[in-house]
Amino acid sequence: MVPVGCLPLVITLLGFGNNQCIASVNHLATALNQRLIVTSELLNNTLPGLRLLLLDIYTPYFDIITRPAIYGFSESRRACCGTGVYEASIICNLNSVETCSNASKYVFWDATHPSQDASKIIAINLFEQGKSLIP
Questions:
Q1: Where along the sequence do coiled-coil regions lie (predicted)?
Q2: Whole-prediction pTM value?
Q3: End-to-end alpha-carbon separation of the chain, Å?
Q4: What are phi and psi of 39, to 5 degrees?
Q5: CA distance 86 to 100
């Protein structure tokens, strides 16, 4: 699970004016991730022929959000597309009035999803994690 407590929507709803990640929500995400690891190991050991593979999406995502400049981003708290308190829009696309002028500088495309550039960095990280595990 991703660091849900760092999503712009969650910060807006639960941050009470604070612009920081919500640690308690992130703690729930990491606890779930730990349970998934234990459960997948149990299933892999119990069911012959099954091979579940879990990759860590939390760490690279959190790193991009908390250290955006290292990855070339200048905005990690607001979304590129959306307006209003919840930074939401019915339709977010490059032609929408609510869309920022340079999406490549934003970690988040909308209030809950990473931008294309952030997604690419996360995907490369996941590939690097998993390639040694492929027989």
A1: none
A2: 0.88
A3: 25
A4: -65, -40
A5: 15
